[in-house]
Specification:
By secondary structure, the protein is α/β, with parallel strands linked by helices. It has 16 helices and 10 strands. The N and C termini lie far apart (64 Å).
């Protein structure tokens, strides 16, 4: 059994120990606090159902903490997904095994919520432990690189990071590379590879690229790896865009997407939309009615006119929608043409206060609930600015590949408010594209927290 299988088995055993210990403690606590919740069901029965249910989920959706390139958000998502499925399977188990007894709903919900937190802590500890091991030259994979393209060089740089646990044993290529680091660490020509591999049976993986004219060598190398228990990975020269890309398969035909779009994944899209609906619904039925009454009264006293200001803005895929805000300016004819400035005469005192504290943006939770916007995303622009900037700024329209947000990465990175100069808008666009290409649920949470702290700290560009 290989090291990775031992690691996988070790995680499973740790999970089961955690499950049994936490379930046992929860059972005895429940006996003293809510005995009716588990009446007629023994601890042995509960443990049997929970262990079986967890093993089913574990076999279908194994952990990702041990994977070398797993991120914290990947671990969090897998634990949440595992816990929800664990709850469903365990509930079905209790229903079928004890049809005449109401299954311990309150116990099960409370227990699995607690277990999910403990499981997440355990997974993160495992991840950090493995990083520590790999940084100290343990739990290593021994690899060989073949070729000298940009892709091979990028792999070389990536695998040098000790936290991933790779040991680059050799680099083989024929002609001189344009990358000095590859030249300095070259082991030999590709013709030297086979004799070298026979002397290094500990090699686990080979990552290779050879020109099309040397296709026969690739096939020979692949067969050699198959016969010597070495995993072979072909690294095509697809660095055409010089940035993040993603490879997709259309009926087994590989195609290269211009950029990585995590929100194109249906699961990510569903998770983000579900979070938007939950948060916006809670806000609109709890806090918003009180805010609305107070703000409506102040607007009517300070500035005659409507409470809401609705403006057509550019949304997802360039579609137009009505963005809702509390009216922070006097009624005027330039609202769809001119950006707000620091000492804008159109503002009235209370409106100025709302803009500085972001209160004027709160009605956009209605847009979020309707689906026109998200809690986090590129800020929507008025139609006139979309038309102007799309002509002046390269890749400006890329920001419309995601739903616009109440707040965004650009806003919490200092690109908020009036854009006097073109480079300010270019900076905002770059941050919006960075968000689209690197979205994670954790990134959304970080942006939301940063937005709230900025509201209380004050922002010099908020006017």
């Amino acid at each position: 059994m290989g090291k990775d299988k031992f690691l996988y088995l070790g995680i499973l055993i740790t999970d089961l120990c955690l499950l049994v210990a936490s379930a046992t403690v929860s059972y005895y606590i429940c006996q003293h606090t809510s005995p009716n919740a588990i009446i007629g069901i023994t601890l042995k029965s509960i443990l049997t159902i929970l262990i079986f249910s967890f093993l089913v989920i574990f076999s279908i959706y194994p952990p990702v903490a041990q994977e070398r390139f797993s991120k914290t958000e990947d671990i969090v998502k897998r634990v949440l997904f595992t816990s929800v499925l664990f709850l469903l399977v365990a509930s079905l188990g209790f229903t079928f095994i004890f049809p005449n007894i109401e299954y311990p709903r309150s116990f099960l919900f409370t227990y699995i919520a607690t277990f999910a937190i403990l499981l997440l802590i355990e997974r993160l500890c495992i991840k950090n432990y493995l990083i520590s091991l790999r940084s100290n030259n343990r739990n290593k994979k021994h690899i060989v690189l073949v070729g000298n393209t940009a892709s091979i060089y990028n792999l070389y740089k990536l695998f040098q990071n000790p936290i991933f646990g790779y040991n680059i044993q050799g680099i083989f290529f024929n002609e001189t590379s344009m990358y000095e680091e590859l030249n300095a660490n070259r082991t030999g020509a590709t013709t030297d590879l086979y004799s070298w591999l026979k002397k290094h049976p500990e090699t686990n993986e080979i990552y290779a690229f050879l020109p099309k004219k040397e296709q026969d060598q690739i096939n020979m190398l692949s067969k050699f790896c198959d016969n010597n228990l070495i995993r072979f990975y072909y690294v095509p020269a697809i660095d055409v865009f010089q940035r993040n890309m993603t490879v997709r398969f259309i009926n087994n035909i590989p195609v290269i997407a211009r950029r990585e779009e995590p929100l194109a994944n249906p699961y990510n899209k569903f998770a983000k939309r579900a979070f938007d609906i939950i948060v916006s619904s809670l806000f609109l039925i709890t806090i918003y009615p009180f805010v609305f009454v107070f703000v409506a009264i102040m607007i009517k006293i300070k500035s005659p006119g409507p409470i809401y200001f609705k403006q057509k803005r550019t949304g997802l895929d360039g579609k137009i929608f009505n963005c809702i805000k509390f009216r922070s300016m006097k009624v005027n004819d330039d609202s769809d043409k001119v950006q707000a400035t620091k000492d804008d005469p159109r503002k009235y005192p209370f409106g100025d206060f709302m803009r500085k504290t972001n209160i004027d943006e709160l009605p956009q939770f209605i847009n979020v609930w309707k689906g026109d916007m998200s809690l986090v995303g590129p800020r929507p622009h008025m139609l006139k600015h979309t038309e102007e900037y799309s002509r002046l700024i390269n890749r400006f329209m890329v920001r419309h590949l995601a739903k616009p947000g109440i707040t965004g990465l650009a806003q919490v990175s200092g690109f908020r408010g009036e854009t006097k100069y073109i480079d300010q808008m270019e900076g905002r666009v770059l941050k919006d594209i960075e968000y689209i290409e690197n979205w994670t649920f954790l990134l959304d949470l970080k942006i939301m927290v940063k937005t709230v702290t900025n509201m209380f700290a004050g922002e010099k560009n908020a006017y």
